[in-house]
Amino acid sequence: MPPRKYLVTGGAGYVGSVVAAHPLAAGHAVTVLDDLSTGFRQAVPEGAGFTEGRVQDAARVLDSSYDGVLHFAAHSQVGESVADPDKYWRNNVGGTIELLAAMRDAGVGKLVFSSTAATYGEPLHTPVHEDAFEAPTNPYGASKLAVDHMISGECRAHGLAAASLRYFNVAGAYGPYGERHDPESHLIPLVLQVAQGRREAVSVFGDDYPTPDGTCVRDYIHVADLAEAHLLAMNAMSEGEVTAGEHLICNLGNGNGFSVREVIETVRKVTGHPVPEVAAARRDGDPAVLVASADRAGERLGWHPSRADLAGIVQDAWDFARRTAAEPKQP
Known about the structure:
With 331 residues, the protein is an alpha/beta fold. It has nine helices and 14 strands. The protein has helices at residues 14-25, 78-83, 85-106, 139-158, 187-195, 223-238, 260-271, 295-301, 310-324; strands at 5-9, 29-34, 49-52, 68-71, 110-116, 161-167, 169-171, 202-205, 217-218, 220-222, 247-252, 258-259, 277-280, 289-290. Strand 5 (110-116), helix 4 and strand 6 form a beta-alpha-beta unit. Helix 1 crosses helix 6 (223-238), helix 3 packs parallel to helix 4 (139-158) and helix 5 (187-195) packs across helix 9.
C-alpha cells in the first residue's frame, strides 16, 4: 500500500497517541493536533509532526495532501460533563463542526471518529448491538451522539466517507503509550494505583448486582486492538469498502465481560501486591452488565481483537504504570 498522510486530532491523549503510533509504524505520515489540555507532549509518537492547538484550529493544518482524519479531540469525563455541559457542547460538537468544515475546504474526504458506548445510555439488552436504542444519560454521551448525527448528515450532503467506532472500556498500554489521566476515573489504573501505594484502597460501588459475584461486569478492550480497528476503518475507505457518502457505525469490544472483583483479583495476581477494597453504595446509572457485540466490525472491517486476556491487559497497564511512576509531570 502506498504511504498515506493522516491528521490525528487529540493525538497526545491516551487512545489518540496509540492510534497515531500505528500508521507511523506502517510507514505513513502523521500530524498530531492537540491543545495539551488533557494530553501530554511526551505522548506524541516520535516521528509524528505536532501542532499545538484545538480541534477548531484544524484549518491551520489540513490541506489536500492529507488522506484522512482520525478524530479523538474530545472531553470525555462523564461527571464533568454533568457539572459543566457547556464545555462539552462547545468542544465536542462545536469543535467537530469546525473540523468538518476544514476537511471540506481542504478536500479531505475520509474520517474515523472516536465515538463511545455512552451514546446508548443504559441498554436494555446485552450484548449491545448497533441498532440498540440510543438514549445517553449525560452530556458527554449526548455530545458524542450529536456528532454521530452530524457526521451522517455530512456524508449524505457532501460525500464524506466516515466510520464511527463506539467502544466501551479501553485499557492496557502500547509500549511507551498508556493512560496518564489526572484525575483518573478508570478502574484498572485506579486499582494499579492501590498496588503502587498511591491509594489506600479501591472502592467497589455495589456488590449486590445480579452477576456471579455481585459486582458490575464490563467489556474491556486492549488499546492496541482499538488502534488496529481505527486503521482498518481508514483502510476500508481507501480501498472503497466504505464508500463516499457512507457513515459506518461499529461497536468495538471483546464480546465478554469481567467483573469489578475479577479485575481487582487479576491486579493482585499480576502485581503481587495486596489491593485493599472498600464497599461503597451503587452509583446511579451503573448497569449490572455492559458488553458489546462487535460482529459488524468483524464483518465490515475484518477486525477481531487478539488481546482479550484480562491478565495480559493488566500486565501491559502495570508495566506502563511502573515505567512512568518516576517521570516528572509535564504538560
